[in-house]
Amino acid sequence: MKPFSAAVWNRMVDELKRWWPLGFEGADAGVWRHPWFTGVSWNGDERRWEARVKAGFVNGVDPTVGVVQRDGSVKAVGLTEVPAVPLVSFRVPSPVPKFFVALGVQAGPAVDGGALLEAAQIGGAVAVGGLLGAATSTRLLRACDLVLHQPRPKTELDIVTDGLGGAAGTGAQFRVRYVGGVGRPFVRATSLYRQVVTGDLASLVQGTLTDAGEDTRLVATVFFLGPEGVLNEEVVVDETWTPFVQHGLFWNLAWSSPGLVYVPDSPGLRFDLPLAGGVAQPVINQILSVVNDASSAAAQFLASRRAEGRFWSV
Amino acid sequence: MTAPPDITRLRAKVGEPITVRKWNDLLGFVNRLLSQFRQMNGRGLHVDEQAEGFSLWAEQAAVSFTGAFHVTVGGGEIRVAAGTVNGDVVPVLAGRPLDGSDNPGRGVPVLKVRGLKPNEAMKSWVVLEVTLGAGETVLTPEVGRAEIKHADDLGARPAGVGWLPLAMLEWADARAVKRVWQVVYFNQRHHFVMKGGRGVHYFHAAS
Q1: If we measure between CA atoms, which residue out of A159, A136, A243, A151 comes closest to residue A188?
Q2: pLDDT tens-place string over residues A54-81
Q3: Which of A249, A296, B28, B128 has the largest count of CB atoms under 10 Å?
């Protein structure tokens, strides 16, 4: 075969030059974005995806992001400084949004995404591919969530028993305590956001459900669509994947907790128990029994003293 | 704007043989170009790699939006665009209605940056303060007032005064505002309730 001449080669280079981009600029540059707008980009140095959230505000304050410093310490940096949130932990989303099904991701069984993630962690890469890599699937999908956390006082119950109940029984006095305070909100990435639900009064008495001491909102879910044909072996979410952001917040927020205005010295909730004496477990069983009988009063008591706050748009 | 690799560097001199190395250089240029596309991935652009090549999807640009109480800083002045509370209460700024309706010939009122100061974190806020008459729970022009002020802290206000940050000001130094971060985009609804012996002011975006 006759080798290329320099002239032929240069014609090819010149033709390529005609189609060569003059420069790269983010398509979002200079465009108005709503608060909490989340952009995702690949950090080639750290070899990871990172999210940057346009500063949103809670009660006029921008939440922070924990940024790891060179010495390994973590510094809280406000969103107005546009810190990067590393996205390093992912789940296999389920159900798969139709948008991604149309792009070749198998819809998959309607099972819990967290369970799939755990299966993936146990079974390794091949297991993950197998879960989604059926005959009709041509690509993989991963997701993670960015979550707004608002630290607040935590509700705890004091139950004081005495011998002053009716008919020489035991009296049980419920008092609510608030532990901790209101902190600056912060944003964190997690593989799967689960909204914390504070338990009912009975659960609190039993200690089976605890108050997390924070309120949360989903800022955004980031989906990563894998390259076509990469199904079983390749599960690392790298720069060949395509990010898509589904936003959960669009406007700035106010937040308030009823616990902030509750007066701790107000009377507690009192039950008179027929059981004499103060042995722990029988007393709790009695309390639960009475709470069930007086569920309305108990629910009202707890509802009026819960520290769970709420967010709303301003 | 990021510049792509300059492909004209691959041009050959007259008589120069086209070697495998030259081909590999060309491949390297193409890979670097693809790498730069990937760096744009997620920044208003989706780079979707498929078996036959890759697609570029550009997101539609958002329509610009300012909304109510839009705060701007320029020429040593802070301006706050029109906004209302409870439908018909127009807040006052520097003693005049925010919309300048008391004297259209004078334009809208402004706050002078000179004399204001940020906190230690070089931040301050433009806030909406609502004061209600004793025993009142709903702000109307007759029973209270709404005023826009500058504040260098978000601490507690006097009893009976409710407040809402409209924007956060980020200062370059003690005299110049570097950037405005808008907090409120909507007209507001306000109500006052007593809880646990304390009064609480609530502000909501008006739909």
Answers
A1: A151
A2: 999 999 999 999 999 989 999 999 999 9
A3: B128
Q: How confident is the model at residue A144 (pLDDT cuts 50, 70, 90)?
A: very high
What stretch of H or E contains B25? helix B20-40
Please name the residue ranges forming H helices in chain A. 6-19, 98-101, 113-132, 201-206, 280-293, 295-303
The answer to whether A251 faces chain B, any CB pair under 8 Å, is yes
Is the Cβ pair A42, B43 closer than 8 Å?
A: no
Q: Which single residue is written with the structure tokens 């477990």?
A: A281
Q: What is the CA radius of gyration of chain A?
A: 28
- Residue A199: half-sphere exposure toward Cβ, Cα within 13 Å: 13
Spell out which residues of chain A touch residue B196, defining contact as CB-CB under 8 Å.
261-263, 266
Inter-chain contact A40–B61, Cβ cutoff 8 Å? no
| Nearest partner of A198 among A209, A185, A186, A183, judged by Cα | A209
pLDDT in tens, B114-129: 999 999 999 999 999 9
What are A162-168's contacts with CB under 8 Å, separation 24+? A162/A278, A163/A276, A163/A278, A165/A272, A165/A273, A165/A274, A166/A272, A166/A274, A167/A274, A168/A276
Identity of the residue in B11, B14, B44 whose CB atom sits nearest the CB atom of A26: B44
- The partner residue sitting opposite A60, judged by closest CB among B33, B65, B125, is B125
pLDDT of residue A313: 94
CB contact under 8 Å between B205 and A44, yes or no, is: no
Give the pTM.
0.79
Q: Is A189 exposed, middle or buried (0-12, 13-18, 19+ CB in 10 A)?
A: buried
Q: What is the rounded average pLDDT for all residues in chain A?
A: 78
Per DSSP, the residues of B174-205 read SS-EEEEEE---S-EEEEEEEETTEEEEEEEE
Using N-to-C axis directions, what is the helix angle for A280-293 and A295-303, rounded to 10°? Answer: 100
Q: Residue A234 has what pLDDT?
A: 58
Q: Measure B6 CA to nearest chain A CA, in Å.
A: 9
pLDDT digits (tens, 9 = 90+) for A88-115: 999 999 899 999 998 889 876 544 444 4
- Classified as helix, coil or strand, A8 is helix
* Structure tokens belonging to residue A52: 């940057």
**CA dist A3 → A9, A33, B19, B21 (Å):** 10, 54, 9, 14
Amino acid at A125: A
* Min Cα–Cα distance to chain B from A84, Å: 14
Determine contact, residues A170/A163, Cβ cutoff 8 Å. yes
Q: Which residue of B has its CA nearest to A40?
A: B42
Is A57–B168 a contact, with Cβ atoms under 8 angstroms apart?
yes
Nearest-angstrom CA–CA distance, B206 and B86:
8
Is the complex ipTM higher than 0.85?
Answer: no
Residue A274 has which token pair?
């027929």
